[in-house]
Automatic annotation (TrEMBL), chains A, B, C, D:
InterPro entries: Aldolase_TIM (IPR013785), IMP_DH (IPR005990), IMP_DH-rel2 (IPR005992), IMP_DH_GMPRt (IPR001093)
Matches recorded under Gene3D superfamilies: Aldolase class I (3.20.20.70)
Record-linked SUPFAM superfamilies: Inosine monophosphate dehydrogenase (IMPDH) (SSF51412)
Keywords: NAD, Oxidoreductase
Name recorded for this polypeptide: GuaB3 family IMP dehydrogenase-related protein
Recorded family membership: Belongs to the IMPDH/GMPR family.
Residue stretches making up the IMP dehydrogenase/GMP reductase domain: 20-298
Length: 374, 374, 374, 374
C-alpha cells in the first residue's frame, strides 16, 4: 500500500505524510464560489458544514454544542467531562482558564477527580435536545457499557465512542469487556467510533457497523501522545488509508458508506481543506474552536486526555486573555475574517479552496490533486 | 512528469521543490561580468532587467511604476488598489505604514472598502504614459470585464489579469462570466495572466493567447494562501513545469513563445537567479521592493490579497522604520550594495551569478545546472 | 542491508533513522493494561522493568543504584566516577550542581583529576550488595584490566565495560592491550559491553561472549560526540541492525541470546517504547533520571565523557532548581505523572503503549508496527 | 554519478549532501590514539596537521601565519588584504573588531578601499620566510597577473589563487585574460587553486597542473553566497565528487596526485573528520580560528568576499569580547580543550576519530564508513 522504508534489516516502516507535508494544486478548472456546497449528511442527520466539535470541556459545553448545531455543524458533549461531573462547572472552568501552564495539568487532574454523575448526562442531553439540534455525546471505551445506556435513554441522536486508540479486537483476561462489534450493532442509535490510525484499524472499526469512524488521535501541538506513548499518526496518510478501507468496505458490503472524521493536525482552514482532499468526510475541530467568544474556558485549551489521573497526555494552552476581542463562533466558522492566519471564516475558506480547485461538493473534492514537499 | 509520492493507497502527489531546496552549480566555464546581458523583451517592449513589480500598493504607486520603468524594469499599477480608489491616498498609506501588526489586516480592509473609481484608473495611466515608460495595470479576473476597458481606453501598453489562481476554464452557473480565451484574443493590448501552478494550468493559460503567464501565487513569508486555502506552489517545480509547457506550446503553435514570470519565493538576488535558471523569463518583485526609499508605504509590505473583506490571505510587515537609512530603488536594483544579505544590487548579483555559471543571456541561463538538498 | 545513499561517486552511506523519525502504529488489536508485563531477565538476574541506569555520577550513586534495584531496574555505578575517587563526594556534587554552564566543563575536569581509589570501588560494591540488589559497576575499556578485578573480587553480579566506542578488535602497537574476547570469556561474572553502532560492531561484541551489548553512544542533546568526533549513531537504525545481528548470532550459536541495551535518544517514555519496538531488550536511562528527587547532583546532568581531561564530549545541564518540587524515582518510573511531557511514569506509559499496540511482553513488542516521517 | 532528482520535466538536479547530513560510523576495529598520524605532505612541504588557514584578515596576519606554520599547519596571507594595503593595519583591525554588526559591511568596504601596495606584499613574505615556515599567499584570479609575480619574486613557497568560483575555462571578450592552464604550468612555485564545486570543475582545475585544488566556496553561517548568487556547494558531495575526479586524474596522468582542500562547513572538529573521510587531504580553517587568542581581529570574523565594494557576500561576526578568556592557537589545534563543543583541540579530536574508526593515516581514513540522515 504505502511507500515503505527499511529502518534496518527486517524492520519495515510505512512512510507517513502529515497535512503540512502536502498542499492542494489547482489544476483543471475553477468554479464560482456560489456554486460550491459544503453540505454533509451522516445517517439521518444533515449538516451545512463538515464539522464536528472535539469533545473537550475547553470548547464543548451544552451551550456551545447547541450553538454549533444551530450554525450547521455537529457539537459533541463529553459525557465524562466537567458538565457531567458538576451541577455547575462554571467556576471550575474559570479557575482552569486562569491556571499557570506549569501547574495546569495538576489542576485538571484535581478537577476531574469528581465522579461522573449519570443523572447529569441525562440533564445535559435534554438541554441539547430541547434546542432542536442533533444531540451527540462522547463516552470512552472503558465506560461505554456503564454510561452509553444513560445517554441513549436520554434520547441522544448519535453516540461517539472515542479513546486515544480504539480497536475492534480488544483482548482481555477479564470477563465482560466491551465487544464493539456486538455492542454497536445492538445499539439503537448510530455510532461514531475511533480513533483509528491506518487502513487495517479503520477497516475493523467499519465492520463494527459504525456510521462514522474517527481517524487520528487528535494530534496538535498540545497533544503529547507521541512523547508519552511513542504513538503518532501522520494525518494525510492516515486519512488516505482509511479512505482506501472505505472503498474496499463499500465493495465488501455492496454499498455501505462509512463516514470518516479526521481528528488531528486541524489547525487552520487550510488543513481542513487538505484533510477533506485526502478523503475525509468531515473534520473534528479542537483547539481552533477555543478562540470563539462563546468558548466555555475563555480561550484556554486542553485535550480530554490531559486530565488523566496517572498518565496525562496533553498540554494546557493558557487563555488568549479576557481583554482580547475574539470572534464569535459564527465569525469563526463563516466569517468575515479579520485575521489572515486561516483561523477565522474556516468554511468560507473551504468553499474558496473548493472553488479554486474546481469542485462543488465535498465528495468530489476528495479527488483534488496534491503536491508533496518531501 | 514529476517524481510522484504515494501519500497512501490511491492518492498520488507530485513531489515539489522550492527555490530554497535547490542551488546553482558552476560547472562548465566562467564569463566576464561585462559580457553578460540581462536584457528582456516581451512583445514590443524591451527591458534592461527581467523584473516586474508585483502590483501591491505597498510598493507600486504611479511614481514608483515610472521610476521602475526608467530604471529598465516593468512597474505594474493595481487598478483595484488605493490609487484608483482615492484621489490622494498618501495619508492612508502613511497611516497604514504605521499600523500595529495585530490590527493591520482590519485597517487594510477598512481602507479598501472605498469603491474603485474608473476615472482614477484613466488618470493614473495617463500619468504613467506621460513619463514615457511602458504602462501596465493589473485587474482581478472578477473585475476584468468592468475595469480592463477603462485601462485599455486610457492607453495602457500591457494588461495584467492576476488573481490568486486563474484558470482558463472557469465554470459558473451564472451568465456573463469572463471567458479568458475569447477575452484575451479579442483584446488590442498584450495580456499577462496568472497565477498558474503547474504544467496543465500554465498550458491552458498560454492557449488563451496571453503574451505572458505568471507562475505562482506570490508566496513569501507574508502570504498565507497555504494556511487559509491549503493551496501552495513550490516555485522551482512550478517554473520548471511551466517551462515544459512552454516548450510543448512552442511546438504546438510552430513557434509562439510565451513569457513566464515567476511570482513567489523571490526574497533575494539568489532566488532571482534560481527562478530564471528553472526557466522563468522574468521575476515579480514583491516584498524586496518595499525596502526602497521611494516605496509608497515606507517599508511596510502587504500582498493585495491581504485586504480581502471576508477572507484576507496575507500578513502585514511593519515598516522598516522612518529613521533607518534605506537604499533608493536604483541601488536596490543595480547597487552598490551595503548589505551582504542579497537584498541590494539585485541585478548586479544576477549578472555575477550568470558570469560564474558561464552564461551571457537570460535565455541561455535557463539551462544552468542545479543541485538539490533533498 | 539498510537503504543506501550515494553521497557522490564511490561513497555510499547507510541511511539512518533516529527514534524521532519513527513512531508506533497500533494496528491489530488492543490489550488490557493489566495483562501487560514489562519483565526483563538477563542471565540470572530478573528485573520488573527493562531499565538500566546510565553510569553517570549525575544520577548513579550507591544510594540511587540501590533505590533503582529496589524499584525493579538495574542501577550501574561508575567505577571511575566520583564515588570511587573521593571518600565522600557529596560536597563536590553539590558544587558541581551549582556550577554555571559556561565553566562547568572545567569544574568537571578538575573534580575528576583526583585518582580512582580501588579500595573505594570495593567499599561501594559492598554497600550495594548489602542492600540485596543486583550489583553492577562500569569500567572503561582503558582501565578494565586494572579495575575490573577489584570489582569482581568485591562480588559484583554484572560488569559493564563501556566506552564511547568499543570494538572487539582493538589493534595496538603496544603490548598488553585488552583483548575483549579472551577477557570476557575468562571472567567469572557476566559482562555487558558497548557501545556498538551497527550490525557488524554489535555482532563482534556478541562473539566476545558478552551477556549484553550496549547500542549507541548515549547521544542526547547534552552529548557532543557528533560535534567533536564526527561520529553519530541514529538509534532506530542502530537498534534494528543490532537486532538483526542478534538473530544471526542466535543461529550461529544454536540459541545463545544476547541482550541489547539502547543507550541514546532516550528522552521520554515515548522513546523508550520506540527503542524496544526496534528490537532492544532494555534501555539505558540517562538525563531522564536526573530529575528524580534522589538524584545525587540535584537535577544537574552530564555524561561521563564530559569530564575528559583533554577532549570533553558532553555539555553540562544545570540543576532544575532546589526549590522546584520534583518527583521521586518511584513516581518517575511508575507514576502517577503530574507532567504530560512523557518524563514521569515512564514504565506506566510503556505498559500503555504495549497495551494500545496489542502486546503483552517486551519480546513480542519488538515486532510492533512503525511509521516513518521521512 | 550522483543521485539525481527531477525538479520537474526536463530539469534534473544532482542531490547534494552537506557534512551535517552525514556522520562517521565506527565499524571494523579501533586503534590506539598513539598509533595515529595526522601528517600531510603537499609537494615538497610537510605538515603535522592537514590544516590550511583561510586567507581572511580576521585570522591570518603575518604573525598568525608564522604561528600556524610553527604549530605544523599552513598559514596563508591574503595578498589583497589589509596587511598589503596598510603599513600597519592594527588600528583598523581593532576598529573593525568593535564595529556594530549592522554597519560592519560598510566599514569593511571602507577599509578595503585603500589600494594594495606591491611593496607591502614583498615585505610580508620576507617576514614570513624569515620565521622559517612555509610561505604562502593568496591572490584573486582577477589580480593574479599583477600581484603573483611580486609574491613569487619575494620568495613564496606556495601560491594560492582563490576566488568564490574559479574555472579553468574563463571566456572573455577582453584580451589578456588569465589562462590558468598556461599560467600555472609556467610558474616556478606550486599552486593551490579554487574553489571548485563538483567533479567537472575539480577535474578541470587539476589539469591546470595545480598541486592542490580548493573545494567549496567557504560556506558557513557567515557566508552569503547562496542568498546573493544562488550558488551553494553541499560539501560532503562536493568533496566526494572531487575525490572521484582525483582518482580519474591519477589514472589519466599515470600517477599525478592532486591534493584536495575542503573550504566550507568546517565548523568544528567533527566536520574536519567528516571532510577528510569524504576524501579531502586537508581542510581550510576559517571562523574556527577567529577564536584564538592571537587572532588579529580579536574574535571578529568575516570572509574576504564580505568587503566587496559593490556586492559583498559575507556577514560580520562580532568579537567574542575582549574580557572572555580564549585559548591560544596551540590549545585550539592540539588542546587540552576546556570546551566540549568541538571547537578546541581540533586535531586531538581528529586523531581520536581516526582511532575510533580504526585508521592510522589520513589517506586511509578517506575510506571511513558513513551514515546519512536523509
Amino acid at each position: 500500500m504505502r511507500e515503505m522504508v527499511e529502518v534496518g534489516p527486517g524492520k519495515i516502516a510505512a512512510r507517513g505524510w502529515r497535512l503540512e507535508d502536502v498542499a492542494l494544486v489547482p489544476t483543471r478548472r475553477t468554479r464560482d464560489i456560489d456554486d460550491v456546497s459544503t453540505d454533509w449528511q451522516m445517517d439521518a442527520y444533515h449538516f451545512e458544514i463538515p464539522a464536528v466539535g472535539h469533545p473537550s470541556d475547553a470548547t464543548m459545553s451544552p451551550a456551545t454544542v447547541i450553538e454549533m448545531g444551530r450554525l450547521g455543524g455537529l457539537g459533541v458533549l463529553n459525557a465524562e467531562g466537567l458538565w457531567c461531573r458538576y451541577v455547575d462547572p462554571s467556576s471550575i472552568l474559570k479557575e482552569l482558564s486562569e491556571a499557570a501552564e506549569d501547574v495546569a495539568v495538576e489542576r485538571l487532574q484535581e478537577a476531574y477527580r469528581e465522579p461522573v454523575k449519570p443523572e447529569l448526562i441525562a440533564e445535559r442531553v435534554n438541554e441539547i435536545r430541547a434546542a432542536g439540534v442533533t444531540a451527540a455525546v462522547r463516552v470512552s471505551p472503558q465506560h461505554t457499557q456503564e454510561l452509553a445506556p444513560v445517554a441513549v435513554e436520554a434520547g441522544i441522536d448519535l453516540l461517539v465512542i472515542q479513546g486515544t486508540i480504539v480497536s475492534a479486537e480488544h483482548v482481555s483476561s477479564e470477563d465482560g469487556v466491551l465487544n464493539l462489534k456486538t455492542y454497536i450493532s445492538d445499539l439503537d442509535v448510530p455510532v461514531v467510533v475511533g480513533g483509528a490510525t491506518n487502513y487495517k484499524t479503520a477497516m475493523h472499526l467499519m465492520r463494527t457497523g459504525a456510521a462514522g469512524v474517527i481517524i487520528g488521535v487528535g494530534s496538535d501541538e498540545w497533544s503529547t501522545t507521541d512523547a508519552v506513548l511513542g504513538i503518532d499518526v501522520p494525518m494525510a496518510s492516515a486519512v488516505v488509508e482509511a479512505a482506501a478501507a472505505r472503498r474496499d468496505y463499500l465493495d465488501e458490503t455492496g454499498g455501505r458508506y462509512v463516514h470518516l472524521i479526521a481528528d488531528g493536525e486541524i489547525t487552520d482552514s487550510g488543513s481542513i481543506a487538505k484533510a477533506l482532499a485526502c478523503g475525509a468526510d468531515a473534520v473534528m475541530l479542537g483547539s481552533v474552536l477555543a478562540e470563539a467568544a462563546e468558548a466555555p474556558a475563555v480561550g484556554a485549551w486542553w485535550h480530554s486526555a490531559a486530565s488523566h489521573p496517572k498518565l496525562p497526555r496533553g498540554r494546557f494552552r493558557s487563555l488568549t486573555g479576557a481583554d482580547v476581542e475574539v470572534p464569535d463562533m459564527e465569525a469563526l466558522l463563516y466569517g468575515p475574517a479579520t485575521s489572515s492566519e486561516g483561523n477565522h471564516n474556516l468554511f468560507g475558506a473551504l468553499r474558496r479552496a473548493m472553488a479554486k480547485t474546481g469542485y462543488t461538493t465535498v465528495k468530489e473534492f476528495q479527488r483534488a490533486d496534491m503536491v508533496s514537499y518531501k
